[in-house]
Write a structure and sequence with these properties.
With about 300 residues, the protein is an alpha/beta fold. The chain is built from ten helices and 14 strands. The protein has helices at about 30-35, 60-70, 85-90, 95-100, 115-125, 145, 185-190, 215-225, 230, 250-260; strands at about 15, 40-45, 75-80, 105-110, 125-130, 160, 170, 175-185, 205-210, 235-240, 265-270, 280-285, 285-290, 295-300. It comes from Lysinibacillus telephonicus.
Length: about 300
Amino acid sequence: MKIRPKRLNIGDTVGVVALSSPLAMEKLPEKLEFLESLGLRYKLGETVGLTGNYLSGTDEERLNDLHKMIQDPEIKAIFCLRGGYGAARIADRIDYQLLTENPKIFWGFSDITYFHNAFQEYSNIVTFHGPMLSSVGSNHFSELSKKMFQQLFIPFEIQYDANISPLQTIVPGSARGELTGGNLHRLVSTLGTKFEFDAKGKILLFEDIGEPLQKIDGMLNQLRLARKLDEAAGFVIGNFSELEDGAQIEDVWNIFEEYLKPLKKPVVTGFMIGHCEPNIALPLGVDAILDADLKILRVLPGVE
């Protein structure tokens, strides 16, 4: 059983960090106003406002910012400001025992998948695959996406069914296992490293953005050859947005069907999880049940 961090209370202080790519500072106020609307106070990490070619500060600055937020007893949750790139560059230098000793909510997705995987493996803690702060506060940020932050204040089981978005069963059946995964590209990039993700008996979540069909095919083939697909218990296929070369989402589902149908493990596509609106936030590292016959995903609470 992984450690579930303590729930948030109104008035708690949370940390805001930029551990991957930077966010333009003129966009920051509305992001902080969103946290205030949840009843939270905040501390800005030293990486907020730092810029480089594509990184929010140096590796050392981003690593130190993360460590300080984990060690600060006033900080009850850490929210990532933006994805992009950079998590893998500092993964091998993180003091993972720090988070085990100071368990707290860690929230983000996309490039943050690398941290999710590492924290689950080496800190033994539940983390949260949810919208980056870069997307909140804007006009297109939906009420449902905002509502998903409430799981941090009140532990509740999440049930995702076809009332939220149209779902399609590729392979019927049901499976129970720990929910893990995230961005397909970042998961594949862990292969052959000490951070190689564990798929054994897990329900795997996949999502991605801006990839051509042949690259999605190639990544799934690499997972097939690495036996990650064989090892999994079931598959939750999230959103694949901004497809290249005029491809349609049905083309993506066809690729998944080609790779996953022979495995005879439950597979459901169409979840609004990833680079999309709404973006349904889910805890990773907790038990989940995927019922592909009824097209329902049930996920246990991520906080205590």
